[in-house]
Amino acid sequence: MTAETVPKTALAIVFDEHDGPLRVEREHLVATPEVGEVLVRIAYTGVCHSDLHAWHGDWPDKPKLPLIGGHEGAGHIVAIGPGTKTPLKVGDAVGIKWLATACLDHCEDCLSGNEGLCAEQKASGYDLDGTFQQYVVSDARYVTPIPDGLALDIAAPLLCAGVTSWRAIKETNTKPGNMAVIVGAAGGLGHLATQYAIAIGLRVIAIDSGEEKQRMLAKYGVQDFIDFKNFSTEDALVEEVKRVSGGRGPHASVVFSSGAAAYNTALKYLRPRGTLVCVGLPANATLQAEIYTTVCTGLRIVGSNIGNRQDAIEALDFAARGKVKPEISVEPLENLHSVFERMERGEIAGRIVLSCK
Ligand SMILES: [Zn+2]
Ligand SMILES: [Zn+2]
């Protein structure tokens, strides 16, 4: 395949103002890759909660407008910018993530593998046009190679939900055989975190609600499921987590909840030297860590947002080896507005993946 086969225009979903119409542009101009860039033909893109925030414009940092959102794209390289030094070739399967570019070589954060903190970072589907389109240009240093044999519809949601949940599990400071509570274990991120945790030998205590979710988690090997709705007080829930974990409490708790309560409850059931990993983003919420207990029991409180390029490679590798599989349903790209509506109503189980073919 050569650059000549790339059409001049293609399908894209564009919005011009926050909460404005998601226009289906069938003749959107396909960008030409410059030096350092590749052009990727997107086969599938996941839809993440952050895409909804970009459309609403309700985060303190505003995205560019007009915008093509999306940051969980999987596809093939169809062209490479002239003079670009890269081991990648036309035809390679690659993924597009939230982080689209960063300096990579002259700030302390990039040099220590924390490129998500780089002051020069730009995000796909936020600062730059993203994956809700058939062709997207990306920094050649930033696309993630997709392993042979990993289906692109499965790879797509792993590029944000997978990387984020894998990174959160890495932040637990645990060893194989340790116990980790996962709060929101059946959700879009939680069901992946559960599988990553089990894959590295952690015993997962899942907190969520409902028999359907319990059945889904049992499929991954979760034996300890706590339905939080069965506990009317925080004390009763804390006692149950401690009982299930043998009395002392779990070694870690990874919280994906969008409510503040779950974070504060976790601080009460963790064992001494236990780690709370905060991943969900409840608005205007505060952690209430009692300083005396935190000091005397050596509790660790860690925030975890996105992973780096190596985390992304690892997140995909688990899936290529059959250890992790996202729950997906595939719909056409044109359904984006309807997906946002269902997301808003909390009706989406697992991840919806849009086909850009
Ligand atoms: Zn995301
Ligand atoms: Zn940097």
Automatic annotation (TrEMBL):
GO CC terms in record: cytoplasm
Entry EC no(s): 1.1.1.1
Superkingdom of origin: Eukaryota
Family matches, as InterPro entries: ADH-like_C (IPR013149), ADH-like_N (IPR013154), ER (IPR020843), GroES-like_sf (IPR011032), NAD(P)-bd_dom_sf (IPR036291)
GO MF term (any one): alcohol dehydrogenase (NAD+) activity
UniProt entry keywords in alphabetical sequence: Metal-binding, NAD, Oxidoreductase, Zinc
Cofactor(s), by name: Zn(2+)
Limits of the Enoyl reductase (ER) domain: 20-354
Protein family according to the UniProt entry: Belongs to the zinc-containing alcohol dehydrogenase family.
Protein name listed in UniProt: alcohol dehydrogenase
Organism: Rhodotorula taiwanensis
Lineage: Eukaryota, Fungi, Dikarya, Basidiomycota, Pucciniomycotina
